[in-house]
Write a structure and sequence with these properties.
Shape: elongated
Oligomer: single chain
Radius of gyration: 19 Å
Largest sheet: none
Number of strands: 0
């Protein structure tokens, strides 16, 4: 099957954002990929905010903007474990988001 590892040989066909060593229905694979992309975007955005904040700190007039960039970067870094937790909850529920919501309410 394309995009799925051969778990016996440990070989992968090299597709990005594919859950290695498991077989999932197409809908669940799409959810997995979407969470991986969101996680990666949060990482890149946080790193970019910290780099921008660092550069802004070189200029005394822009230190306040630099402080805000550091805060934004920190919030984005905090988003990463949140995304991981939500992904795990969704994957445990078999990709059924209504099931996750039902379990959270009870």
């Amino acid at each position: 099957m394309a995009g799925v590892d051969d778990t016996r040989s440990g070989k992968s066909d090299g597709r990005l954002f594919e859950p290695h060593g498991t077989t999932m229905p197409p809908r669940q694979r799409r959810l997995y990929a979407a969470f991986e992309i969101a996680y990666t975007l949060a990482e890149f955005s946080a790193a970019t905010a910290f780099i921008a904040g660092s550069v802004l700190f070189f200029y005394p007039d822009l230190e306040t903007a630099g402080t805000w960039m550091f805060l934004i970067g920190s919030v984005l870094f905090a988003l990463k474990p949140t995304l991981r937790l939500v992904k795990e909850l969704v994957m445990v529920s078999g990709g059924d988001l209504t099931e996750v919501a039902r379990r959270a309410k009870s």
